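dumping this here so i dont lose it again. seq + smiles for copper (II) ion
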Amino acid sequence: MALERSTMLALLLISLGLLQTALAAEYVVGDATGWTYDETLKFYNDWAASKTLKVGDSLKFNWVSVHDVVEMSQADADACNSVGNKISEWQESGAVVDLTTAGTHSYICSIGSHCNAGMKMTVTVLAADTSTPASPPPPATPGVTAAPPPPPTAASSIQLRQPLIVGALALIAACAALSF
Ligand SMILES: [Cu+2]
């Protein structure tokens, strides 16, 4: 019985891990490039635009050499006004920035002229229960029978996540039932 209990515990931990994966994610800023200078000033905004960030997700900033991460207003960040109002700052590489509110958040490196060299980024964070807004249906062509609109792209991520959540909850329920 002890073996079964430990097996159940392992399953429970795995299912909780799946649940966590389905609900929140940590994104490494710049992926393998990390947080550094870049020759294209749009690099980090392009990176951010490629992600769907939600409340509960987090950003991880990895860097070498001397950098930092400072959250600023978007206006200060756009202007690289590193003496503007610092909303928050992180000094150590590996900094994990939790995204706790929806809306836009802007980050720069405040060291020297690094911001002007491309170390700035504005991300858009969606509410936790909001998926990517569906794109509007294509305009109907007059005189042509409109085909049904394609399903919104957001559906694929929802369909991916729901079985994970349901499976995790089923495993938790099974573990709870078996432990009595
Ligand atoms: Cu820097």
